[in-house]
Amino acid sequence: MASFIMELSGGRELVNEKRAEELISAITVSNPTHIRLSNKSFDNGAATKIAQYLESLEGVTVADVSDIIAGRPEDEALRTLNIICSSLKKFDLVEVNLSDNALGAKGVEECKTVLLGDNIQRLYVCNNGLSAEAAELLAKILIREASVVGAVEGSDSKKTPPLELLHFYNNMAGDGGARAIANIVVACPQLVDFRFSATRSTVAGCESIAAAIATLPNLRRLD
Question: Matching PANTHER family, A to Z (predicted)?
Fold first, then answer.
């Protein structure tokens, strides 16, 4: 199937509600399969306008929402993340890019709706300032209780998206975060591309990652 990419025109900028309306009116792709909001910093009014536009679409499979809250106060940034990610939950996404947003654990929680997608194959969480707590929350969201008809009540059955690519670069995960990411890796045996570098992990954390990597039968790219 052909890919149609929607991206907002112009360079890096702070975007308010009025500017968001101008950017939306300039979009020429009618049925995008990929949406790219990067390098724009949205206030809450702008995020609401963008969300309304996204909710009007059908068939989006790739969402690049990297670098969309730069320079925003924490409360405003968190609300913007929630507004935009919530508008994406209707789509059957196979790729999500949350990189270059100062997330922390609070930001991960606000992005939960998009991270709960059942068919995410490629996930980018790079340069997000993710601590051990944030990495643990990410793992909890991705590795969740399976809601399957016929599942035995009280069983420890888990459900994870079919991740083939996981990039977790330039975060503050430390050893606790490394163990959390290792749990994700073990839960996603179909991974072929894994990036885990510049994460402030010591030997203990890296040993957890190494053990997890050893379980991957199809891994082709490792950083």
Answer: RAN GTPASE-ACTIVATING PROTEIN 1 (PTHR46761:SF2)
Q: Using the predicted structure, report yes or no on whether residue 88 has a pLDDT greater than 60.
A: yes
- Reported as a single tens digit per residue, the pLDDT across 147-171 is 443 344 444 567 888 999 999 999 9
Please tell me the CATH code under which domain 1-91 is placed.
Answer: 3.80.10.10
In the chain the first and final C-alpha atoms are separated, in Å, by 30
The closest of 158, 134, 157, 133 to 144, measured between CA atoms, is: 158
Q: Which residues contact 155 (CB under 8 A, 6 or more apart)?
A: none
Task: Map out the domains of the chain as residue ranges.
Answer: 1-91, 95-147+158-223
Nearest to 24 by CA among 62, 71, 35: 35
Q: Are 1-91 and 95-147+158-223 equal in CATH topology?
A: yes
CA nearest neighbour of 105 among 24, 153, 58, 173: 173
Rounded to whole angstroms, the Cα distance separating 78 from 103 reads 8
Give per-residue burial for 57-74: e unless 16+ CB within 10 Å, then b: beebbbbbbbbbbbebee
5: helix, coil or strand?
strand
Q: What is the pLDDT of residue 149?
A: 39
Amino acid at 66: S
Fold type of domain 95-147+158-223: 3.80.10
Residue 166 tokens read as 């996981």
